[in-house]
Amino acid sequence: MIRKPAAMSLVLLLVLIVATGTGCQQRYLDMNAVERIVRMENPEYENKPIPKHVMDSLASLVETYHNQIAAYANDKGQLQLLYKNIAQRYLDIGYYEQQIEYYTSRIEAGKNLPSGADKKVYYDYAAIMLMQKKLYSDAYANLQESLKLSPDNTFLLYYSGYCAGLIGKAIRPDNESEGMDWLGKAVKYYQQALKTDPDYIDALYGISIIYVYELGQPEMAIPSLLHIKEQSKENVDALFVLAAAYTMTENYRAAIAEYTEIEKITSSDEKKKAATDNIRQLQAMQ
Questions:
Q1: At what angle do helices 93-108 and 31-41 cross, to 10 degrees?
Q2: Where are any strands of DSSP class E within 195-279?
Q3: Between 146 and 255, where is the model more confident?
Q4: pLDDT over 90 at 120, yes or no
Q5: Can you tell me the distance from the alpha carbon of 60 to that of 214, in angstroms, rounded to the nearest whole number?
Q6: Nearest 5 degrees, angle CA 146-CA 152-CA 155?
Q7: Where would a tag sit more exposed on the chain, N or C end, judged by fewer CB atoms within 10 A?
Q8: For residue 22, which of 78, 67, 68 has the smallest C-alpha distance?
Q9: Residue 119 resides in a domain
């Protein structure tokens, strides 16, 4: 199972962080942008009002994410410039929409982008929208163009790995060799993203998913999953993958320990039941 970009990743579109001194001191939240994200993530709200509790929930997530970034920036002062750049690029969804409409109209008319145009804005936004539509090959192509302009951008590297992984998974049943090539690209992009930010949980999770479920190399995933656990002890999705990795390496006692931890911390009845069922199966194997 490869996770789609979570709402937490998309809140980068909503948060303005002004990084000064040793931390991030100011935030601007556009509730219209929050509403757009809700509608993109939940098609059921396309033609009906969004309940207040849904909007409040995402607003709370944005607030939490902002606080996490602020704390992280305090520890990793060298990332302040990166966060400031994120703020500048993702502040205004409306600006992106205007730019994409303008650029797209020029392309459809057979015209090149004008000299000095912010091509990265175009490629970034196009990639995001294409991923929302699950057009991962097209999104990957736009990410490659954006990476030419910003080759060390953590998020571009992560999403390149994300798209490459999904492409590889889709192609592999019909073309094993090509599918494996794409999965190899995904691993390399995740590794590059982690070079720029070794604590980036999405990249740690993404590379672990490929190692465990696609490449059958669970031992390669365990260090990344343990690193996630160090940062986020209640990351249930990562704990499930860690337990699966331990099971595949026949470390059943460690797997049972992770499933037991999931039972304690998850609020999802479905996930709790899955953990309980897995514990019973593993106990029968010992």
A1: 60
A2: none
A3: 255
A4: no
A5: 34
A6: 70
A7: C
A8: 78
A9: yes
Is the same domain home to 4 and 65?
Answer: yes
Claim to verify: residue 96 and residue 86 sit in the same structural domain: no
Tell me the pLDDT of the chain averaged across its residues: 76
d(CA 141, CA 137): 6
Of 132, 149, 166, the domain-final residue: 149
Confidence of residue 52 (pLDDT cuts 50, 70, 90): confident
- For residue 52, give the amino acid letter: K
CA–CA dist 271, 96 (Å, integer): 38
d(CA 39, CA 116): 33
Strands (DSSP E) contained in the chain are 15-20, 23-29
- Name the nearest CA neighbour of 242 among 264, 283, 209: 209
Find out whether 267 and 283 touch, Cβ atoms under 8 Å. Answer: no
DSSP string, 42-59: -GGGTTSPPPHHHHHHHH
Higher pLDDT, 252 or 32: 252
What's the whole-model pTM score?
0.64
**Across the strands, what pairs with 16?**
28
Asked whether the beta carbons of 235 and 201 are under 8 A apart, the reply is yes
Residue position matching structure tokens 């993203």: 193
Indicate the burial class of 55 (C-beta count within 10 angstroms; 0-12, 13-18, 19 or more).
middle
Q: Are 83 and 73 spatial neighbours (Cβ–Cβ below 8 Å)?
A: yes
Question: Looking at the domain assignment, is residue 33 inside a domain?
Answer: yes
How many whole angstroms separate alpha carbon 82 and alpha carbon 85?
5
Q: How far apart are CA 119 and CA 125, in angstroms?
A: 10
